[in-house]
TrEMBL record:
<keyword id="KW-0472">Membrane</keyword>
<dbReference type="InterPro" id="IPR004872">
    <property type="entry name" value="Lipoprotein_NlpA"/>
</dbReference>
<feature type="signal peptide">
    <location>
        <begin position="1"/>
        <end position="21"/>
    </location>
</feature>
<dbReference type="Pfam" id="PF03180">
    <property type="entry name" value="Lipoprotein_9"/>
</dbReference>
<comment type="similarity">
    <text>Belongs to the NlpA lipoprotein family.</text>
</comment>
<keyword id="KW-0449">Lipoprotein</keyword>
<keyword id="KW-0564">Palmitate</keyword>
<protein>
    <submittedName>
        <fullName>Lipoprotein</fullName>
    </submittedName>
</protein>
<dbReference type="GO" id="GO:0016020">
    <property type="term" value="C:membrane"/>
</dbReference>
<keyword id="KW-0732">Signal</keyword>
Amino acid sequence: MKKITKIVTALVAVFAVVALAACGAKKDDSKAVHTYTVGVASDQQKEIWEKVGASLKDENIKIKVKLFSGYTEENPALADGSLDLNSFQHVAFLENYNKENKQDLTYIGYTLISPFGLYSDKKISKPSELKDGDTVAIPNDVTNGGRALQALEALKIITLKKDAPASPTVKDIKTYNTKIKIKEIQADQLVSVLPDVTAAFINTNYVTDQMHTTPKKSAIYIDTDHLDKVSKLYKNVIAVRKEDKNKADFKKIVKAYQTPAIAKLIEATNDYPAWDGAK
């Protein structure tokens, strides 16, 4: 009987140790650092995301930032799991990517809206100086190219068809009020072709990274100077895979991004914070 009692006592002790170990493991797991990789397309956005990451240390979240040189790799990398999030594109770009590639990437929060400017290499000083025969270069992707066409319409240089889609193409031009030539160029190559055209619409990240200037200093026209004419489709977002949309850590990441401190950093880069209540 004593022998049985000793065995039972020993088993109870073993179970107690296992239970404590399990509790300890669970506790340790709750404190484990979760690492996520975010893809960006500019040095300035890399710096901003590094600040976001620094603010998440107490949440046991680590952010790794991967810098890309263009706009073509970030979404495929997100779709195949190489990235956990990306932060480089606006809503229109994301929707077009999903449509063309049969994907269902989504977004979990707004980040910024970036000025989209028209630039000229000393050929003209304002859009009204464009004349028949001049060449204007625009991005060759549908969404940024569409934004350029909408700007040209706002400037009354072209007129778009009434049934033109939210992201129009050159085929949606009804009338050339000034008979310019429109040249479609890959977005990250527009700076290099600027000397060969009359003017070019260039995304701000390439203006800062390649031209080492800002829209306010160098653009002859900026569409965000007329924000009421800029579609909400051009608000930049934090994109994720659809199945991760409600992930608790990602909600914390959005909250860490959408702060007054990050808003100031965005404004310092000549962009505008785009989330509700940012201003």
